[in-house]
Amino acid sequence: MSALPSSSPLPERRPIRELPDELISQIAAGEVVERPASVVRELVDNALDAGATQVTLRLSAGGVRLISVEDDGGGIPREELSVALRRHATSKIASLDDLETVGTMGFRGEALAAVNSIAELTLHSRARGADAAYALDGRTGELRQVARAEGTTVEVRELFYATPARRKFLKTDATELAHCVEAVRRHALARPDVGFSVWHEGKLVEQWRATGTRDPRLSDALSEDFVARSVAVDHERGAVRVEGRAGIPDAARSRGDQQFFYVNGRFVRDKVLNHAVRSAYEDVLHGQRQPVYALYLTIDPARVDVNVHPTKIEVRFRDGREVHQAVRHAVENALAAPRAGDAEAPAAVPLFSPSSAAPAPSLPAWTQPRMHFAAERGTGDLAAMWPSAPATTPQTTADTAIDAPAPWSAPRPQPAVTAQAGATAPPAADSEPVWPLGRALAQLQGIYILAENSQGLVIVDMHAAHERIVYERLKVQLEGAAISSQPLLIPATFAATPQEVATAEACAEVLATLGLEVEPFSPRTLAVRAVPGTLAEGDPVELARSVLAELAQHDASTVVQRAQNELLSTMACHGAVRANRQLTLDEMNGLLRQMEATERSDQCNHGRPTWRQLSVRELDGLFLRGR
Q1: How many other CB atoms are there within 10 angstroms of residue 346's CB atom?
Q2: Where are the alpha helices (DSSP H) in 443-598?
Q3: Region of poorest pLDDT, from 4-13, 261-270, 468-477, 542-551
Q4: pLDDT in tens, 207-233
């Protein structure tokens, strides 16, 4: 057996000493400057703090060779130019009280010094009312007189020349340019009163003219489609105000690349805010689809701490719960646009019975999506114009009554378009009420219901529509009750963190309400003994971990509500009428009337639209009538 190696000698002791200022600045630059876009963000922050009404960004090689930010703000007096490049030199704050109530974009006094330590920086400025402009060379400290109008220009050349290893982590020029443009876009969305332009290699890349109002800037900086497919948000709760626009559910995307949140004009990424917005969509957007939004939160600066991260992209709220509730209610109220004559959902009766339909409220304007045909979609296939319900093999499903399920036989073969001759006709036109979704005409391919209203043709995805109706009813039935659970024959154990064990013990009652039974098996192991009945086939460990993580981070009542909604959505999907189910005209009309009486019936539980309107004018266009 070999002998154990002798202990290694102690390393030579180094004396404690102060770091040189340049090295300190380069360390700070490593935190502040990740890529050219980081420099752009800091310089545009300073331009806006100086009162600029026009900001121009000029780039070369994606910002690696040159970043130049020009503004028409207040400028910097000659005697303060050299001070501006020193570490921790700023005009934004002077005391701890100022730091706790920051109202400017910048305040640390680190950006210019950090950039100057890793690049060649030149500062041109002419203070308001001054006779001349001056330029300061950041390397040599030389100050010379130059020609310039009032305002400031900061030129940054050869980024990372002093730290060449950092250059290896940069992407292509096109990628770095895209990040720089995005940095300016974020500022542009917050300041519609300021004009912005971006030039690259002498060519104009982006330009946003000052508009003074928010919606035109959103159309310019994002798209007209973003504004058209979103609802206005304007909500005030206590000391918090939330404004902006939130996308309708069927405008959701696979990525969260159109999610902009501002706190007192500062673009931020915050878990509390993101969770609040997502929870507002939980009733209409299940799964992994990401909502789109541009939201602006105004709050007393003393109630939010912006001194959390060197990049200033993170914040911390004094009362996170207050902010969370304000944001959630703001978006929820906007999505659930008021409906005239809203009536309570009908009692539990056969779903498609025409007699069960409540008085039909008028649907909110934004829920009347338009249909675009071959000119825009590139196809004339009618069935492909709208997302359809999943194709399913005919099998035993729920009957038409929610509270009295019964098996039914497989559907009979039917032609492409089936009109039920001999079915009970709706009331005469002069005696019937005004129905927003109109009267049913026929069924198409066992998937869609075709109906006629005063505007033209309405096309309804019957599975998606019925799914929302079933879901809303199940929510009412479950109010105040716990989700039923199913014991596991063999408990599923897993190694847990101390936080997971503590959360399981502290939130045992909440877990029981969710249909979960999670108990300590040992000091470092948890056992899942029961899961919600509808999720019995899933992974119990993964389910328990995700719920415990939510409970540890967010308010317990919010987690309970979200979990219930997810489970009910699954149940509603399985209980809704399936494709290829043949319906009579009476059943179709009954479904339309209940859609009109059901909250959020314009969207299924997964965010897809349940119906589309095709006007007579659009139909005329398809057949070239009037030409």
Answers
A1: 18
A2: 462-478, 498-506, 508-513, 540-553, 556-575, 585-597
A3: 4-13
A4: 999 998 899 999 999 989 999 999 999
Three-state SS for 374? Answer: helix
Question: Over 230-297, what HEC string results?
Answer: EEEEEEEECCEEEEEEEECHHHCECCCCCEEEEECCEECCCHHHHHHHHHHCCCCCCCCCECCEEEEE
Kindly report whether the global pTM for this prediction surpasses the value 0.85: no
The answer, yes or no, to whether residue 411 has pLDDT greater than 60, is no
DSSP lists the bridge partners of residue 494 as 526
Residues in the chain: 627
Structure tokens at 581: 């189910």
Question: Is the separation of the CB atoms in 568 and 329 below 8 Å?
Answer: no
Residue 127: which residues within 8 A CB-CB, separation 6 or more? 74, 75, 76, 77, 78, 150
Distance of CA 20 to the CA centre of its chain: 44
Contact between 400 and 350 (Cβ < 8 Å): yes
Dihedral sign, Cα of residue 282, residue 283, residue 284, residue 285: positive
Structure tokens at 457: 């043709």
Report how far apart, in Å, the C-alpha atoms of 170 and of each of 64, 157, 158, 167 are.
9, 16, 13, 5
Q: Sheet containing 240-247: which strands, arranged edge to edge?
A: 230-237, 240-247, 293-298, 259-263, 266-267
Say yes or no to pLDDT of 39 above 90.
yes
Look up residue 136 and give its amino acid. L
Higher pLDDT, 499 or 65: 65
Q: What DSSP character marks residue 367?
A: G
Q: Rounded to whole angstroms, how far apart are CA atoms 193 and 231?
A: 22
User: Looking at residue 543, what is its pLDDT?
Assistant: 82
**Amino acid residing at 83:** V
What band does 4 get if pLDDT is binned at 50, 70 and 90?
low
Element at 199 (helix H, strand E)? strand 195-200
Provide the pLDDT confidence category of residue 372 given band limits of 50, 70 and 90.
very low
Q: How far apart are CA 360 and CA 78, in angstroms?
A: 71
CA-closest candidate to residue 382, choices 612, 96, 74, 576: 612
Contact 351, 402 (CB under 8 A): yes
Bridge partners, 266 (sequence order): 263
